[in-house]
Amino acid sequence: MNKKVIALLFKDVLLEFRQKHSFYGILLYIASTVFVLYLSMPDTPESSVWNSLFWVIQLFVCVNAVAKSFLQESKGRMLYFYSIASPIQFIAAKLIFNVLLMLIMSLISLGLFYTFLGSPVVDFQLFIGITILGGTGISLVFSLMSAIAAKAQQNAALIAILGFPVILPQLLILIKLSKSAFGEVFRDGAVLQLAGLNILMDLLVIVLSVILFPYLWKD
Amino acid sequence: MNKIWWKILSFILLVYTIVCGFLLEVPRLDILNETIRNLYFHVCMWFGMMILFIISFIYSVKYLRGFNYRNDIFARHFAAVGCLFGILGYLTGIIWVKVTWVTDQGQSLGSVLKEPKLIGAAIALLIYGAYFVLRGSFTDIDKRARISAVYNIFAFAMLFPSIWIIPRLVGSLHPGAPGSDSGNPALDKNDMDSTMRMVFYPAVIGWTLLGVWIATLKIRLSIISEKNIFEIKKMN
Questions:
Q1: Distance separating alpha carbons of residues B185 and B46, to the nearest angstrom
Q2: Of B226 and A56, the one with more pLDDT
Q3: Domain that holds residue B77
Q4: Which residues of B fall below an 8 Å CB-CB distance to A?
Q5: Which residues contact A119 (CB under 8 A, 6 or more apart)?
Q6: Å between A69 CA and nearest CA of chain B
Q7: Burial B138-172 (b: 16+ CB within 10 A, else e)
Q8: Hey, are the CB atoms on B149 and A215 less than 8 Å from each other?
Q9: Looking at the 3D structure of chain B, how many domains does it have?
Q10: Above 90 in pLDDT, residue A107?
Q11: Interchain pair A168, B123: CB under 8 A
């Protein structure tokens, strides 16, 4: 069981290395977006503006990074996977791969934000933690949305339509949570409560993906 | 579906709600005054919406368990009527906001309306909007039913925290926030006096039954109009 997940994961990583253009494409997407922000914003934006821009960019980066994970698989190849692996193994491999990809992209965009737009972050370790938490949550939700949109034979636009309302609660929690890293004082335990809620929602998404993906899988 | 007693019950309860809701005595509090009567309409809309969405969710689960096309029709129409109730809930809410939240201190309506509960309800309407867009993007009926059932279940599960948990964690003007007098929007014992409760609970039941009634009419209509699909399915 686990061997197959690792093999599928390895296949995705290998594919990413073979077709480097998509990986670099997303990197360039992040870089040019941040550069546009750098040119259009005042030199040091306010912390609340910085915060909301950061998370909105994360959202769009995720749509672009994760969108292709199911769209790229041709019908013939899906049939092949169908014959060698169970749907749960397949979705598990996809989820892990997308989370890893999104974490790399999140951390890179955090670095770019830091260089170009300055940073209101006081507690850097905490903010990196929140970024990892947020990147994980966003990529998990969009993985399943990508699987649904792939079935509708639609482009990335449908992923955004399906995913944005679903991700909103998590995004609002993340934006609130980030303020704790900017030195804003929270009520005792509120930070842990919000982070816990976010982790619980991530777990909910994983469980639902595992339950629901088998229905998306067979045609 | 064709039983008539609950339709009569719905009618009687709604007549009772409107007559007693406008005529019975209500406590007159500061700011709220007589607008508290809106409780019999505004809050009931949200109750109705949640119940209809729950029914839609249950039919989506049922669809995935047996792939019976009827269940898909049920899920679709209950979601649609749920959205209607959500929009009506907003409209009745706007009237209430106008007299209670908007003061003469010149704050913008946008800042007043950035409320956790309003955002939660907006997320609900956006999710079901996306559900109908997703439905529209398929041509194959079975595939449409299956994929949209998956989205309905997923979206409903994600809706839970945004409507039932987050608004209870953060402060707001809306009743039911921590720090305000009551802990629960609509069901707290300190929120209503006994005369109001006598009208409120029947009102919730009446409005919800009306929603179910509208949905069943739409379901019967689309079962008739898609009759040949059922016949083809039977032949297979």
A1: 11
A2: A56
A3: 5-235
A4: 64, 119-120, 123, 126-127, 129-130, 133-134, 137-138, 143, 146-147, 149-151, 153-155, 157-158, 161-162, 165-166, 169
A5: A50, A113
A6: 18
A7: beeeeebbbbbbbbbbbbbbbbebbbeebbbbbeb
A8: yes
A9: 1
A10: yes
A11: yes
CA distances from B63 to B71, B75, B145 (A): 5, 9, 8
Q: How far apart are CA A61 and CA A26, in angstroms?
A: 7
Looking up tokens 């109730």, which residue turns up? B85
Ramachandran category for residue B185: left, alpha or beta (phi over 0 → left; psi -120 to 50 → alpha): beta
pLDDT in tens, B73-90: 999 999 999 999 999 998
Grouping H, G, I as helix, E, B as strand and the rest as coil, residue B106 is coil
Taking the CA of residue B171 and the nearest CA in chain A, the distance in Å comes to 12
Q: Are A177 and A84 in contact (CB under 8 A)?
A: no
User: Which structure tokens are listed for A42?
Assistant: 């005042």
Q: Where are the alpha helices (DSSP H) in B67-140?
A: 69-100, 109-112, 116-136
Q: CB neighbours (10 Å) of residue A215? A: 16
Q: Which residue of B has its CA nearest to A207?
A: B154
Please tell me which residue, A193 or B195, carries the higher pLDDT value. Answer: A193
Residue pairs spanning A and B at CB distance below 8 A:
72
> Contact at 8 Å (CB) between A71 and A149?
yes
Task: Please name the residues between 112 and 151 in chain A that touch chain B, using a CB distance below 8 Å.
Answer: 141, 144, 148, 151
Burial class of residue B30 (count of CB atoms within 10 Å of its CB; 0-12, 13-18, 19+): exposed
Distance, CA of B124 to CA of B50 (rounded, Å): 10
Q: How many CA atoms lie within 13 A of A188 on its CB side?
A: 0
Q: Does A99 touch chain B (CB under 8 A)?
A: no
ipTM (interface pTM): 0.87
